[in-house]
Specification:
It is a single chain. The chain is α/β, with parallel strands linked by helices. It has 14 helices and 7 strands. Among the domains are: 110 residues, no CATH class; 148 residues, Rossmann fold. It is elongated, with a radius of gyration of 32 Å.
Length: 409
């Protein structure tokens, strides 16, 4: 609804991952380079982690567009399954049949398929997204698949993608055999303030808008509120454009953002509540909170900067996940309520305009009657002058154009 008003070809802050809007920050470039290195070297398991909403899925989709026909790719994102179910999803991803009653036959068919692909210079690549949801049995299945080899090279390249909890699971003593196979490990961190500004400008211009639509002060507030998490930036920036459009704002400034935060708090949405801890108002995920991992052993709990270790990190991540799901639903309902509010306001303006127009028409009629009465007293009896018609025959014509915001819709 605000696209035309701000000159966009499309909405700039959609939440769904879109490689066309990918902003290649230094962190994102390093992530892509790490993934490319792992694929090029055909080395072990590639581990790619990042906090909720940092852009992991967008990077994966960007990578898949680049690799072309060199790889035969199976993507599995339904990971809340046991080991056998995961194996079934993997075979389905490669277009193979899963023999539910004969696991040995299933593995044999998968091995033959991968050998055939290798012989044809096509490399099988398995990408498992949402890896933090994998059970112990499913992770063990991944380890067994990483053992499939032909000569001295692995038949299957595996990429594990997930939230920081995945690191915690792989660091468990029971997962030592699997974690030792991780040779490339990258953790994607949130944006810093400068990157947040570049990201917002990039999204605006990619959608066809003006790069300075958001003031610097507004970007400061967006960064402080979101902690530099791209998905959270998209949510609050989209809401800012809705509010700005409703208030006839030509630029998005801090009062717009403050109104969003106030309205969300009053309605129970709590945008800032979702992204901040209750005590002290500290942003949950600061850009510098996690250290960047280099290829090598899986990071330990101390490397994440969490004083409570993995147990505290898992608890915090679980809380953020539940709050994110709750907030997404509430935001959808809130935006619907906002649209209804705008429609009601438009109806009230239209009713006021109709009343005013009726009064104006009545006033115009009385003025015309008064002019006719004056003319009838001044004109002598007889035919009216054909060259100079009576003043009463002239029509008073005024145009009243309502200032109605709904006219933009």
């Amino acid at each position: 609804m605000y696209e035309t008003y701000y000159g966009f070809r499309e909405k700039p802050f959609n939440i769904a991952p879109d490689p066309d809007f990918l902003y290649l920050s230094p962190k994102h470039r390093n992530a892509i380079s790490s993934l490319d290195f792992g694929l090029m070297e055909e080395s072990g398991i590639i581990l790619f982690t990042g906090d909720i909403g940092t852009g992991k899925t967008t990077i994966i989709r960007h990578m898949l567009k680049k690799i072309g026909n060199e790889f035969i790719v199976a993507v599995v994102d339904n990971t809340n399954v046991d080991g056998d179910q995961l194996l079934g999803h993997i075979l389905h991803g490669f277009g193979l049949m899963y023999h539910t009653d004969n696991k040995a036959a299933t593995l044999e068919e998968l091995t033959r398929f991968m050998s055939k692909m290798r012989a044809g210079n096509a490399r099988p690549l398995l990408i498992i997204d949402e890896g933090q949801c994998l059970s112990h049995g499913a992770l063990e299945e991944v380890r067994l698949l990483s053992n499939l080899q032909e000569g001295n090279r692995a038949l299957l390249q595996i990429m594990l993608v997930g939230q920081p909890e995945l690191n915690a699971k792989l660091n468990a003593p029971s997962m030592a055999a699997l974690s030792q196979r991780v040779t490339v490990n990258y953790h994607l961190k949130p944006f810093d303030r400068e990157e947040t500004g570049h990201y917002i400008v990039h999204r605006l211009t990619t959608a066809g808008g003006h790069p300075s639509l958001f003031t610097d002060a507004a970007i400061d507030l967006v960064h402080r509120t979101t902690g530099g998490i791209p998905r959270a930036i998209n949510i609050i920036s989209h809401a800012a454009l809705v509010y700005g459009f409703a208030d006839d704002k030509t630029r998005i400034d801090t009062p717009v953002l403050e109104e969003i935060l106030q309205d969300s708090e009053n309605s129970g949405l709590g945008i800032d509540r979702w992204m901040k801890q209750e005590s002290g108002g500290k942003v949950v995920l600061q850009a510098e909170e996690f250290t960047e991992h280099t290829p090598g052993p899986v990071a330990t709990g101390a490397a994440t900067g969490s004083p409570a270790g993995h147990e505290g990190l898992e608890t915090r991540i679980d809380r953020i996940e539940s709050q994110l799901a709750e907030y997404t639903n509430e935001l959808r309902n809130f935006l619907k309520a906002l649209l209804i509010k705008e429609r009601n306001r438009s109806d009230r303006l239209l009713a006021a305009y109709t009343k005013l127009k009726t009064q104006f028409d009545a006033l115009q009629g009385r003025l015309a009657d008064d002019v006719d009465a004056d003319d009838s007293r001044d004109e002598p009896a007889g035919e009216p002058d054909a060259v100079n018609p009576p003043r009463g025959s002239k029509t008073l014509s005024l145009v009243l154009e309502p200032k109605n915001k709904a006219g933009k819709d």
